[in-house]
UniProtKB/TrEMBL annotation:
<dbReference type="Pfam" id="PF12705">
    <property type="entry name" value="PDDEXK_1"/>
</dbReference>
<dbReference type="InterPro" id="IPR011604">
    <property type="entry name" value="PDDEXK-like_dom_sf"/>
</dbReference>
<dbReference type="InterPro" id="IPR011335">
    <property type="entry name" value="Restrct_endonuc-II-like"/>
</dbReference>
<protein>
    <recommendedName>
        <fullName>PD-(D/E)XK endonuclease-like domain-containing protein</fullName>
    </recommendedName>
</protein>
<feature type="domain" description="PD-(D/E)XK endonuclease-like">
    <location>
        <begin position="11"/>
        <end position="248"/>
    </location>
</feature>
<dbReference type="InterPro" id="IPR038726">
    <property type="entry name" value="PDDEXK_AddAB-type"/>
</dbReference>
Amino acid sequence: MPKDKYTAVWVSHSSISTFLKCPRAYYLQNVYKDPATGHKIKIISPPLALGQAVHEVLESLSVLPTVSRFKQPLLEKFEKSWKKVSGKNGGFLDSQNETIYKNRGIEMIQRVIKNPGPLKNLSVKMSQDLPYYWLSEDDNIILCGKVDWLEYLSDTDSVHIIDFKTSKYDESVESLQLPIYHLLVHNCQKRKVSKASYWYLDRSDDLQSKELPDLENSHQQVLKVAKQIKLARSLERFKCPQDGCRDCLPFERILHGEGEFVGLDDFKADTYILPKKDTDQIPDSTIL
């Protein structure tokens, strides 16, 4: 069968991660479209809004020459990015909660200003807006994804994969993120990958070095899950292993009309926020 990217199954770190946690959540995020609009659905939340704003600022630097990267103050850039996610557009239900998250973002940007680390060095920008390659032509599967930063190491003519982390939590040791990023960078540009690191911007001035996963093992791991996703899509079988979990239930609430529509995202997905349920409100004391 000839290659056809329009009929291929596209997988990414995000979609694979979701599928492994809950196939039903994968379906609602990546396959389902609202019959009324023809659009996919998305839920915006404060952690997602924070990550979006910080990543937008930092990733904008990678297209600039090193001498120009910090000419425009980063906090000015952050203010512009934050306006896009302010209020309900970022899932904030009150100004106090928004202030808490915005201040976290400001602290992350200030950390980068004081400790720019690799961001002041040469970088490599892949030509594709969305890097992708054929994970398996026989299975008609494409692997895609964006890598936050590629530092260019001139002494070895190689690249250093860097992923910016805005969460308070460490990436799971079982995560397929690095295997997927290693595969993408290896197959979508010509230079060898010699290093990989996470930068936990919420708490660290320094990068956390990670061991590079083996490419062949990574390919087999990722292809195995990708084939499971393709089979689930062909059978239209996406069952939550718990008959309702934290990953799929928020989307089920949207389908049941509980969400508030706040607009379209950059990919034309219908974006919603969810009100807090009564069970989310925990009293500070009880009269017995």
